[in-house]
Amino acid sequence: MKQLVSEIRSIIESARTNAVRSVDFCRVQMYWQIGRRIVEEEQGGQARAEYGKSLIKNLAKEIEPEFGSGFGQRQLERARQFYIEFPIASTLRTQFNWSQYKLLIGIADKDKREYYELEAANNCWTARQMQRQINSMLYERMLLSNDKEAVLAMARKERMPETPQEIIKDPMVLEFLGLEKKAHYYESDLETELINHLQEFILELGNGFTFVARQKRILLEDDEFFIDLVFYNRLARRFVIFELKTGEVTHQDLGQLQMYVNYYDRTEKLPEENPTIGILLCTAKNDTLVKMTLPADNNTIVASKYQPYLPTEQQLIAEIEKVKKEWEESR
Predict the structure, then answer these.
(1) What's the pLDDT score for residue 328?
(2) What single DSSP character describes residue 183?
(3) Which backbone phi and psi does 233 adopt, to 5 degrees?
(4) Confidence band for 47, pLDDT divided at 50, 70 and 90
């Protein structure tokens, strides 16, 4: 009886979810059709810009009193822009709602818009999650360590991530933790909050991550060690180890993380899996120290700075310019 109840409950919940999605997509199609008719009417008119502006204004005056604020001037302008940016009806994604498309049409850069569209579809983002990723400037942060072609290729599933830089953002944004702005807090506090907000943390990590362990105990002869966090990335087919530091990175930290990576490669990794990646998550880092501590051909250890708040556009632009300068100087 319990199994029957469980199965029937699952059927009902699935039907309700599908019904909501169906209604949401009908709304998307409605705004697309409205946008198409507005554009067709504009093309049949005279002076394009002025005629289009007055057309939407007059149309809103007629439609909004009857159907409500969802058909005011601003929404009709969005519908028009929606059709212009997505002119082929068959390419509309049935899993997206109108809120998600409103976010997408607000992105002027076509490559950037395609990236968020693909990532939202690949990862089943809700509108709220999509907005968070846009606000945290995910696309721009990915460009800090990858070129545009590589970022789009991974979003299109034309290639799999291979290096730590293609998997982990630097900086990482952990605004969802709600950490107090104080000078010092313990690494255990940071670890606890990451576990408490595991869903949001995995969203920030990106594609393919699954949680494996917290404070993973390893024994080397009589010495005990504990790895802060262990994840597995199914796309890259490798373990990803996190060590958390609430201060600046030291060469000892990097050495310890290298030991953990070696341990996983030699005792946990299967022959068909790729080498383990180690991520030192810290509040500050000396890039020169990191480079000098690690081998010149290092491809498994990376230090990533995190910040407990969303970056401003100015901060990210400054970071991008800094990285560009470092690239140019290293050539």
Answers:
(1) 61
(2) S
(3) -105, 110
(4) very low
